[in-house]
Every structure is written in structure tokens, then in C-alpha cells.
Amino acid sequence: MTDLFAPLTVGDVLLRNRVVMAPLTRMRATAPGDLPNDLMVEYYRQRAGAGLIISEGTQISPIGKGYMDTPGIHSEPQVAGWRAVTEAVHADGGRIAAQLWHVGRVSHESFHQGALPVSASALPYRNRTTVRGEDGQPTRVDCPTPRALTLAEIAETIGDYRRATQNARDAGFDLVEIHGAHGYLLHQFTSTTSNHRDDEYGGSVENRARIVLEVVDAAIDAWEPSRVGIRISPFGSFNGLTETPDGESMALFLAAEFTARGLGFLHLSEPDWAGGPTVDDEFRRRLRDTYDGVIIGAGNYDPEKAERLLAAGLIDAAAFGRAFIANPDLPERLRTGAELNPPNPSTFYGGGEIGYTDYPTLVG
Ligand code: STR
Fold first, then answer.
1. Which residue has the least CA distance to atom 3 on ligand 1?
2. What is the best residue among 54, 106, 130 to mutate for testing ligand 1's pocket, by most ligand atoms within 8 Å of CB?
3. Each residue of 254-312: pLDDT tens digit?
4. Collapsing DSSP states into helix, strand and coil, what is residue 39?
5. Which residues pair with 297 in a beta bridge?
6. I need a labelling partner for 60 at 20 to 30 A (CA). Which of 43, 74, 149, 168 fits?
């Protein structure tokens, strides 16, 4: 019987169990330079018992950054920093994917020397992000109305994803995950709320999906299809995507295209953690029937839900976020039925080792 503790392969990458560490923004990279650091090495090393770690979102370019102290994967020093992370995880037998992130309009001009963030369309919207305040501490500010990407800039952005994939490979990651979810750049193109373009990147499902498939093709070209995965949240309204009339047809269109390309995995983020409609088993079944690679489910899962969906054949692995923040040895705790440490939300974003690398394991 398949349970959370059975091994799994993504292409030729062997995962020792199906307990995935979800991508988790922790805002502890080193400034200036948005660099992965020794503290991050320790944090990921502690969690190497996961079947697969998916890194926090790493920006593919400076304009792709939207929150203070998130790491990048576009400069040489950043790649060197990530190499130390992947080596530490591999030394403990773990596997790790780099999450490739472009926030699009969820950003602020203070990150871009006064230039506006970019998106599919220049539509006003209400949202906030986190910048460094005058006191050096994280401060919430309103996001400005973004500027629409030109066709030439879309081509450049796809090139940034290609280079980021190449960088992830050079840094020793096992896989990449393209962040196509949660109202960030790629989702801003697929959603009718944020995409009002009248060129080949707007309008029909096929047109709105175009940039996603071009990004996927660039990543495949830089590595190989089985090394590439993508995260989507077709029903989520997070980051101002209030309108998702064709979320399901978009998801199934994309899933069929991912199958045609032999993509390694599809990571479905269910919106439960941020409110919004819940994903039902009928949709999960349609996704399963359309996409033939590894499916990772996520979104406020508990182990019972994960086991139920695994047993029903609707997912192949489950990702856990908050539980992994507080329990570096989460798979071992789930396997033995041990109690879980509770997470402390006040130390999720920014700061140092407190609430980051100081959660206790079962054994020393
Ligand atoms: C949402 C999901 C995602 O894909 C990426 C992020 C990273 C930054 C997070 C964001 C999250 C949720 C809202 C946060 C933000 C940092 C600051 C902001 C928590 C998890 C708030 O404080 C509301």
C-alpha cells in the first residue's frame, strides 16, 4: 500500500518518502545581494529528512523581487550560496528543488530604484507587500499600480527563467519548481482579473497560458522535462485575483500541455490556507486524468487528508508548510505518531535563528 513513507521517483530523482516540505518564504537572506547564507544552510540541512524540500521562492531577476530579504538565483554569489545549501541537504540524503519566483505586481518601487513593478496589464489593484522600514524592520506598504510588460520584455523575462533554471542546475538542485500560483507574475497572466491584454498574451485561455508554457519550455531547454515542475493554484484569490471564472479550464488546459511536454511534477496549491473555494475530489480526479506525472497536493493538509488522497490515487505526495517550520524532523514524527511542536507565526518572516533553526527535534 502506498502511504506517506513509500519512496517516489520524479524522473530519475528518487525521493525517500512523500512528505514534501512546501516552499516557505522566511525573509532571512543577506542584504545587500539577496544572498543565501549559513543560517539558511542550517535551516535546510535540519529538514533534509523530507522526501523533497522545495526552497522558498527565489527571484529569477531583480525586478522579480517583491518582499524584503528574499533570496535570488540570478547572480554568481547567490548561486554559490545555494550550492552550500544543496550540498548540506545532499550530505544528509535529502533532495531539494529550487522554486523560481517572479512576483510581478506584488512588489514596490523601493526594490527597483523607483521603477514600477511589472505585470500583464497596468490595472490598479489593492494589495500590500513588505519592505524594509526606516527602523530596518519589515513594514507593510501598498503596492503601486504596475506597468504592463512589453512583448520584448516578456521575451526577456522568459530568458530570465531560462538562466535561473541553468543557475539552479549549477547550484546542485535536484529539480526546479516554477511558481505559477498565488497571484504572482504567471498567475497574473492566466487570471482574467489581472490580464486585460489584447495581444497574443491576453484573451483566450490559450493566449493567457502562453507565457506559462514559454517559461516551461525555456526551463526544459535549460535542463530536461523531468527536472521541471510547476505549482499552480487555479482557484486561489490571493494577492488580489478576485475573479477566477475559468480557473478549472485553465488548469486542465495547462495540465494537458504539461503532459505533452513530459514535465516532472505538478504541485497543486489548494487555497484553503488563504480562504477561497475548496478543491474537491471531482476536480482532483479530472486533474489526475489529464496530467500523467507526479502530483503533489498542498494547502492546509493534515496527515489524514494526505493519506486519504494518496490511497484514493489522487495525489502522489503531500506538501506541508507550517508543520515543517516547527518540526525539522516532521516525517519521523508523522511516522512514529509523535507530538508536533506548534509553530510561532510571529517569527515566520524576517529575523534570525529564533523561530527558524531553534525548533527541537525528537532526538538531540
Ligand atoms: C503567500 C504565498 C506565496 O506564494 C508566497 C508568500 C511569500 C510572502 C508572504 C505571502 C506568501 C503571504 C502574505 C505575507 C507574505 C509576507 C508578508 C505577508 C505573509 C506566504 C503578510 O504579512 C500578510
1. 182
2. 130
3. 999 999 999 999 999 997 666 677 789 999 999 999 999 999 999 999 999 999 999 99
4. helix
5. 268, 318
6. 43
Residue of the nearest CA to atom 5 in ligand 1?
25
Please report the pLDDT score of residue 274 as a whole number: 67
**Residue 244 CB–ligand 1 contact under 6 Å:** no
Rounded distance, CA 21 to CA 172, Å?
18
Q: Is the CB of 182 under 6 A from ligand 1?
A: yes
pLDDT tens per residue across span 41-87: 999 999 999 999 999 999 999 999 999 999 999 999 999 999 999 99
Residues 153-156: contacts with CB within 8 Å, 24+ apart? 153/118, 154/201, 154/211, 154/214
Pocket test for ligand 1, best of 185, 270, 349 (most atoms within 8 A of CB): 349
State in Å: Cα 350 to ligand 1 middle.
Answer: 12
Q: CB of 267 within 8 A of CB of 234? A: no
Taking the centre of ligand 1 as the mean of its atom positions, its distance from the CA of residue 89, in whole angstroms, is 25
> How far apart are alpha carbons 17 and 95 in whole angstroms?
10
| Domains located in the chain, CATH noted | 8-347 (3.20.20.70)
Place of cell 527597483: 112
What pTM value is reported for the model? 0.98
Residue 25 Cβ inside 6 Å of ligand 1? The answer reads yes
Confidence at residue 364, expressed as pLDDT on a 0 to 100 scale = 66
Q: Which amino acid is present at 184?
A: Y
Ligand 1 contact via 67 beta carbon (within 6 Å):
yes
> Residue 21 in contact with residue 62, Cβ under 8 Å?
no
Surface-to-core class of residue 122, CB atoms within 10 Å of its CB (0-12 exposed, 13-18 middle, 19+ buried): middle
SS3 163: helix
Measured CA to CA in angstroms, residue 213 lies from 61, 133, 153, 190, 229 at distances of 19, 37, 16, 11, 12
Q: Whose CA is nearest to atom 16 of ligand 1?
A: 130
Distance from residue 154's CA to the centre of ligand 1 (Å): 25
Strands (E), 233-361: 265-269, 294-298, 317-320
CB 234 within 8 A of CB 248: yes
